[in-house]
Sequence to fold (146 residues):
Amino acid sequence: MGTVTDRDLGFNQILRNLRELDGKTVKAGILKNAGKEPNGTSLVDVAIYNEFGTSRIPSRPFLRIATDKHKTTWLNESERIVDKVLAKYNPNFSILGNEMVENIRDVIGNKSLLAPNAPSTIRKKGHDKPLIDKGKLKSSIAYEVE
Fold:
């Protein structure tokens, strides 16, 4: 009578790598610990006011524009990460996170994508780049893996 030998050719490692991904996501934008403006306003609030607008600030949806422009790229990058896990590599979400951060930052200050600043704002700031005053909002864009 013959014998059966059970050999693991890497399937168990693939399962372990996939378990590492379980529940992980990458978020990019202004994270809750981004800090505050000198007047005490949180940068999360500044981002919300500008993304959706207020009675005095037009909507400058830098997060939505970046997402709409790059969602296919981000999804493709996510698929590449999963492929790497299946190929026994550790997942590297930093590639995707960094790409998302740069894509969002590219929208901030882009006059062709965002509502223009009011003339009074341009005089006050000394330039006409929307969402850029001192650059704190733009430099605060970050990502985290959950």
Summary: The chain has a mean pLDDT of 84. The first helix runs from residue 11 to 21.
